[in-house]
Design goal:
Largest sheet: 10 strands, mixed
Structural class: alpha/beta
Radius of gyration: 24 Å
Oligomer: single chain
Order of helices and strands: HEHEHHHHEEHEEEEHEEHHEHHHHEH
Number of strands: 12
Helix content: 25-40%
Strand content: 15-25%
Number of helices: 15
Mean pLDDT: 91
Amino acid sequence: MNKLQESQRALVLQGGGSLGAYEAGVYQALYERLTKRDKERGIRDRPVLDIVAGTSIGAINAAIIVSYVVENNTWEGSSERLNEFWEYLSKESSLDQIPGFTDWWDYLHNNVNPVIASGEAARRYYSAKQFSITGIPTVFSPLVPHVDTRFFDFQNIWYHFDSEPLKRSLERFAKFPIATNFDEKSSSLFQPRLILMRVDVAEGAAVAFDSYETEDGSRKSEYGKYITQDGKEGGHQHIIWYNDGITSEHVIASASVPINYSYTPLVVESYNNNNATYEKNIRYFWDGGIMSNTPFTQIVRLHRQYWLTVKGLKDTVPKLEICIVNVHPVKQDAIPWDHDGVVNRNADITFSDRTQREQEALLLVSDYVDLARELIKIAKDYGAKDDVINNLLNSNTMNHGLAMIPRKYSDILVGQFEIGNIVRINRKNDENTISNKIFDFSIKTINNLRESGYSNTMDLSDVEFS
């Protein structure tokens, strides 16, 4: 295995509306740090990242990065492109035009009652409130009321936005479709892999879009129950084909926030048990963040699957080093006691990075594979016959075909994955945080998020990738 295949770098971007501006700052700092380190080590033509994965607004950021690199055949300028996108999305709040608005609130906060919001918190709160009512031309349309026609409860009004403005903005900064490849013959053609997450609403299943080809050379997403009929293996219950690459519709499907936005319809081929054939139908998708806002396990699984089935590495696949950008703080020093603060904390915990346990489970699986290999080696050294060992490895697993592709014991021991360094870059709440922060696209807030993402990443001492 050549040096470029010994390890791969992955960046995972969470969903969180306007908080995606923080990720733009993080990416700029990562780009600067990684390119500088590679240059100091004398490494040339090394991709800055091998995998860029995202959910919701993270999916949009990821698509813009990968699209730029593919279109220009260089990483240089990719962070500038992403920052330009966020400058395009942001809009001046009407509150920013009111002289003394924040000063008045600061006076009340500092001199009357500290429970009263600070000027900056009030600015964010009412900016987000304004945008959630009027909309933003580059992000979403104004609220559209849908009157309840089921229970005739006229207080039960459903307000939601149209994501078409965001789709147009995305298409302005990214070129679709996005199809990438790993070509080991020429390092200049090492294109980053784009992985996006979304949810099939009816199936209740997390589904990944992948810009790399599968074993048969096609690009597709397969999910649902694995079909076996008359003892013959078939395929998964649902298949989405995109041989030309990931489209803007696929990206928007990864960012269709429940309730706030409508479902995103996509053409899917689903298995019909009655005639044993796949038939086209329309299925509906939601934001992937409701099931996997930090798609850690999915990335490791797809990474192993590609190198095992497409590239044919039967021993060990390239080590995977991962940087996770967490825009929803896991920890918060002060417990909130007001309604807005409680709603804010609930959202952060719900969508925060919870991959520590996934990491432990994956490493445990890798250790068991290592143990099994060593036990087989010891058995051979002490005279166990190859036929006995091979008969065991070629037999079906205990859970053969149950909720997963049928497999033999030998399938478990090939393509062992190794997880290297994992860097977690955590955005922190400040005293001015608000619950509706994902709607605050004001210029001041977006700039603050980008700057904090950049400075937080630059200040970290453990951003170490090989």
